[in-house]
Amino acid sequence: MEELVKQISAKTGLPEAQARQAAETAVAFIKAKLPEPMQKQFDTLLSGGGSQLGGMLGGLMG
User: Fold this and answer.
1) pTM (2 decimals)?
2) How many Å separate Cα 51 from the centre of its chain?
3) pLDDT tens by residue, 6-24
4) CA distance 29 to 31
């Protein structure tokens, strides 16, 4: 999650607190759209359990 917050802050110029709120809102929205088994995998990625998060989200963020 920290990597996502940093990317949002860097790309938008938002302060870290606002970038964190944006990240949490986006993550909640995405998780709500995923099937339950994928939600758990998504949680693992966000908690640092997967090194592919930056690449996956970097593509989404441009």
Assistant:
1) 0.68
2) 13
3) 999 999 999 999 999 999 9
4) 6
- Contact, 8 vs 14, CB < 8 A? yes
Query: How far apart (Å, rounded) are the C-alpha atoms in residues 62 and 60?
Result: 6
Token output for 24 = 């949490």
The H or E element that residue 51 is part of is: none
Token look-up 């110029």 returns: 13
Sign of CA dihedral 56, 51, 16, 26: positive
Q: Which domain holds residue 26?
A: 2-61
> One-letter amino acid identity for 4?
L
Counting the structural domains of the chain, the total is 1
